[in-house]
Write a structure and sequence with these properties.
Layout: H1 5-13, H2 20-33, E1 44-45, E2 48-52, H3 59-76, E3 83-87, H4 91-106, E4 111-116, H5 119-128, E5 133-137, E6 146-152, H6 161-171, E7 187-189, H7 194-202, E8 214-218, H8 228-234, E9 238-242, H9 261-269, E10 274-278, E11 285-288, E12 294-295, H10 297-310, E13 318-322, H11 327-335, E14 339-343, H12 347-357, E15 361-363, E16 369-371, H13 380-394, H14 398-403, E17 411-417, H15 421-425, H16 431-444, E18 448-454, E19 460-467, H17 470-487
Parallel strand pairs: 3-4, 3-5, 4-7, 8-9, 8-10, 13-14, 13-15
Antiparallel strand pairs: 1-2, 2-6, 5-6, 10-11, 11-12, 15-16, 17-19, 18-19
Helix pairs in contact: 1-4, 3-4, 3-6, 5-7, 16-17
């Protein structure tokens, strides 16, 4: 990769200023006066800034984001250090990495560039170095044409909303830097640091290992391709890999955590004990049991929660999940003495509630799982390793463990594509949809739940209906989807 230093040097070349102070003023002026047209709706969603490359996201905006993220992180830092920068395998990720590095170095910061790596490795390395923050370029489970920018603070946690608002304020010309930029930063390639993350994944499980387990990994042509196979093999597992090369044209396409069919077939064909499917940046994972049956985040939370509970490592027997968590999971967890707190959808909300309550285990049905015993953020590789270790220690198959856990309530989830951003985010203003939701809630009473929301990561409105009666769930799902299609799509 060409160092982004050349981009910041252009600022110097285009300036007649010769002393450091006036050069810094020129840099700041260029990022304050040359503002880009932005949508009126918020840029930050539930998982950073995300969109289709060439529409919302491009090199000019990424450079602006890099500059203002650098300014905000620097202003709030309690130490001096670099920014950790990583990316997934999308074709656009190289371009965005260069642009972000240009903005970050223009803000006077040193950039340590990891290259291709899982999102959790960025968070881990931020927390274990003197870094003042981190940035990951990925659109997670989204298709190849999308991309995104996730920002972490110096604690390795996703950036709080108040700091996201400061960055957005800079992008919109509403704030200015409180400290002058005295000199440009430097860009360094540091891919070897990812090995530190790999070692940290294995360390807690060194005694038990995974010897004797045959595991299929679907790597989704994404960020985990260079790391996951070796980590599982070093832990003693017999590993079969699918979609295990970095491919920006095929990342997440009919594979990974959103498309389990190929993994299910591969587990059966290879007579494997378990299968794991990651998303494009490997911060989430779903499992497949030895019979080829999908095992979602609710089951992962229950099984891992029971394991920690029995070892007295789960304070107050508490798990934090989201409004999407199945009622069957909640009732079963309560029956074994557990407590469940629900948050809004998004692992940042789960994480915030875990920190508030002292909870050690939380996550989402979609496979974002956080265990504070071992990590700071949702981590697909960490979760997969520990689930495999739980299965091995239990002496049962994953299928047997699932059968002994709980039965889910029928839960239907439909995504309705709504391209108009403002109409999508303002869906609550649709009277016809609100009336239909009220009718559905009245009809189901306390035997079901309805959740309608605009996705924070994709241009869709998500409609979820859960009910004890499958026919009732299906009827109201179709009715609500029809209302969205008629009045919003």
């Amino acid at each position: 990769m060409v160092s982004s230093m050349t981009r910041t040097e252009k600022f110097i070349a285009n300036s007649s200023h010769t002393d450091t102070e006036t050069w810094g003023q020129g840099i700041e002026s260029s990022f304050t006066t040359n503002l880009l047209p932005l949508p009126t709706t918020p840029l930050f969603g539930t998982d950073g800034i995300r969109g289709k490359v060439g529409e919302l996201l491009g090199a000019p905006l990424a450079m602006q984001i890099g500059f203002w993220a650098g300014i905000v992180l620097r202003n709030h830092a309690t130490q001096s250090g670099p920014i950790i920068l990583g990316q997934d395998s999308r074709n656009s990720s190289d371009m965005l990495a260069m642009a972000l590095s240009a903005g970050l170095t223009a803000a006077g910061l040193e950039v340590w560039y990891l290259g291709l790596c899982p999102t959790p490795s960025v968070a881990y390395l931020v927390s274990k170095t003197n870094a003042i923050g981190g940035v990951m370029i990925s659109a997670s489970h989204n298709p190849p044409e999308d991309n995104g920018i996730k920002i972490f603070g110096e604690d390795g946690l996703k950036l709080p909303q108040v700091l996201q608002a400061e960055i957005e304020g800079g992008l919109r010309g509403k704030i200015s830097s409180t400290k002058s930029v005295e000199k440009c930063g430097r860009h360094y390639s540091r891919p070897e640091l990812v090995n530190n993350y790999a070692q940290a994944l294995q360390q807690p499980l060194q005694q038990s290992g995974l010897t004797g387990l045959k595991i299929v990994l679907d790597l989704a042509w994404g960020a985990a391709v260079g790391l996951a196979p070796s980590v599982f093999q070093q832990m003693g597992a017999d590993v079969v890999c699918l979609h295990n090369a970095p491919d920006g044209d095929r990342i997440n396409v009919n594979c990974g955590s959103t498309h389990l069919d190929i993994l299910q077939a591969a587990v059966i064909e290879n007579q494997a004990d378990i299968g794991f499917a990651f998303d494009g940046d490997a911060d989430r994972v779903l499992a497949v049991d030895n019979t080829g049956r999908p095992v979602n985040g609710d089951y992962i939370l229950y099984l891992w929660g029971r394991h920690l509970q029995q070892k007295q490592q789960l304070p107050d027997n508490l798990i934090v999940s989201t409004v999407m968590a199945n009622l069957g999971f909640e009732k079963a967890w309560q029956q074994v003495g557990g407590k469940l707190i629900r948050t809004a959808v998004g692992d940042q909300y789960v994480q915030a509630e875990m920190l508030r309550t002292g909870c050690m285990l939380g996550g989402e049905q979609s496979g974002h799982i956080l265990c504070r015993h071992y990590g700071l953020t949702g981590d697909g590789l960490l979760t997969a390793l520990h689930v495999a270790a739980v299965v091995k220690e239990a002496g049962l198959t994953l299928g047997e463990m699932v059968d002994q856990s709980f039965q889910t309530y029928p839960q239907l989830l439909r995504n309705v594509r709504v391209e108009d951003r403002e109409r999508r985010l303002g869906w609550q203003n649709c009277l016809q949809l609100q009336q239909a939701i009220a009718q559905a809630e009245a009809a189901m009473g306390d035997t079901g739940r309805i959740l309608v929301r605009a996705s924070g990561t994709e241009p869709v409105i998500r409609v979820m209906v859960e009910a004890a009666d499958a026919q009732l769930a299906n009827y109201w799902t179709e009715e609500l989807v029809s209302q969205v299609q008629q009045h919003l799509a």
